[in-house]
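Sample A.
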Amino acid sequence: MIERYTLPEIGSIWSDENRFEIWLKIEILACEAMSNLGIIPEQSLKVIKEKAKFDVPRILQIENEVKHDVIAFLTNVAEYVGEDARYIHYGMTSSDVLDTTLAVQMVQAGKLIKKSLEDFIQVLKKKALEHKNTIMVGRSHGVHAEPITMGLKIAVWYDEMQHHLKYLDEAIETVRVGQVSGAVGTFDHLNPEIQDYVCKELDLKSADISTQILQRDRHAYYLSTLALIGCSLEKICVEIRHLQRTEVSEASEYFSKGQKGSSAMPHKKNPIVAERICGMARLLRGNALAAMENVALWHERDISHSSVERVVLPDSTIIIYYMLRKTRDLIDNLEINPDKMLNNLQLTRGLIFSQPVLLALTRKGVSREEAYQIVQRNAMRVWNENISFQSALQEDEQIMAYLSRDEMANIFNINNRLKNIDYIFTKVGLKQHSN
């Protein structure tokens, strides 16, 4: 369930009140531009600016009768303005208002999402630095591979979210475009300067070209960007779910006092937030696909995109905002178990050092093929005989003919395997600030 704390901050962007407020602002700005061009009288503009307002219940009442939201809005505004209302919406079509308003709303939502993404990045930075040297095993195909650190794992997430910050900026700029170009985009009954004026006052770019609408590739790009952020959040949460498995137990979600994990099994502590994030990411991908379906419309427009956007735009912005905040809290309060990480690291009894042994032999002049066979032969002994890898190697005369015991000890020194962690952290911009 989505907590109500998301609604006042981002949900209100999609409220009737905010939508009609933007509509009214666009109509008044268009009147200002027309007055500047001598199209409507200054006195009429003064009346419009003084009297124009709206009443949401009344608009909805009218819409129930006329079955057209913009007409219902204009009718209600005219009830307040009177005779001069004839200049409102002059030469314009509904999409001039609707699409320009959507641009404003998407920018408003984008700014909040960006702030939430920046907050999440800071939490990742803090956690990565905190666990920079917390040693654990790295896995490929789910199988133990070589040593890494928990901080390095989080640093990957940090870097990925930096990518998304760039993508989001680009997506916001892509939809920061308005239009007031008339029924089929020809400005037949409008001066193009009206569009320029309205867009400038709304801090939007004036569309270079439009039909009756702005083309929906913009909206699809925006929603695809939100979906991609969701994919990365899902990736993080899938990792946490794996690390919380009983057999692994290297990290887990914070379990608050009084929290219950299962109606049947009192011992359960489940990764419910991570699972929720994974599920919601599917919604974002579905919404992005729906936005792509909106790109192809009939001729200069049809209305098939409108019903879709009334759902996917509010839902996706609210969902990703919620996901970012919940994942931020999840990482900030993530319970990490370094002792269990070390225990798991030792489960394969040193096999995670097989590659440095292989490379050491090749440096001594052994062919890669022969070195691989030698190392793999001893690795199989470890699997089958339950002995340590280092012991198996030291019992192998063929290996010890090339490597001294000191060299072997150096290979199995885990700190030597992690010597470039500082370099990697510096590359991704993760530096510990001195007080």
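Sample B, a different protein:
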Amino acid sequence: MAKVCVENSPKLRSRLRVFRNSIVREDTHSTYKALSAEAFTKHGLNAHGIIFDELHAQSDRELWDVMTTSTGARRQPLCVAITTAGFDRKSICWEIWKYALAVRDGAIKDPTFLPAIYAADPEDDWTKPATWKKANPNLGVSVKLDDLRVRCKRAQDMPSEENTFRRLHLNQWTEQDTRWLRMDHWAQGNEPCPVMLDGRECFAGLDLASTFDTTCFCLLFQLDDGRFWVEPHYWIPEENMRERVKRDRVPYDQWAKEGKLHLTHGNVTDFDQVRADIMVLAKKYNIRQVAIDRWNATQLSTQLQGDGVNVLGFGQGYGSMSSCAKMLEALVVGGRLLHGGHPVLAWQASNVAIQSDHAGNIKPSKQKSNERIDGIVALTMALGIHATSTAPAPEQSWDIMSI
């Protein structure tokens, strides 16, 4: 576009030469060029002006640091960052965004930094045109109102589109890239369990921690009215709990005091304690089957089977996860999944991003999700074995071949 500007302006054409990847003014030895995203090739630059477009797309801060430190020899350098909101709260874009808010609100005095933020506030109703105007000062001119109406309606009908609309059109930071479960739908299940569960039949999913994940054993009960009750149990190591609080920015310590998660000794999850706690639950409830992710679970799976627990390996691919993930989505949207507002499970429900293939299959994705989702993975597996175990047997059929 800069080339087009030069080519269509006689005054600019008289001063500038246009090449394929740059525009040059020879008498001042000045160059305007577009740069690739590889940070290692940008060391040694002596930049006077930098326009950093879509900062939220940067996977790390390396390119930002290389470019912004390349202006040190200039008397009046200028760095302009242009971006819509993102979802990665550990990114350089989030860091600059928070700094911009602090300067704008007067919490930080920095006369060298000018924040210009056009965004909807977190509490604003994202479906209202008045909110759209806050994030789009050119609404009705370069941004078409009818186009936003169509996109907003689609986001309301398709929860997976909501976060994209809010980030790219309203500049609202979201919890993850593609929202799967809407939290207003999730909140429909906040009521307590209406029946006594001791001795009742249930199914379970077990997702074991790797590194800093949580370990979750999720019990699923089908109630007499067709709804489902979820009872999750979580474990994390006690020694690194404080580090987890700072890193994940959630109150693991408070949840532990409230009995919403269990602490195990040491700095890694003690699977012996997990096993013992599961056996206590097995005496309290009639646990028909336990679905377990086969990865990193061979020893505990074998031990639980030796304890008399019916353990089934459950794959994490589309073939195993898609149908039960869609079932979970339908239960949440329909208000048929009760969980009593369990805070850890609610936090993880808000984190879930899904992965899909070209055939329309879906599955919860730990890689795409920005925070922990272990409870939702365990719940999805529990739904999967429940559906398999309670499905009616197919009627016998005969295949007749004509030869």
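Observation for Sample B: The longest strand covers residues 228-237.
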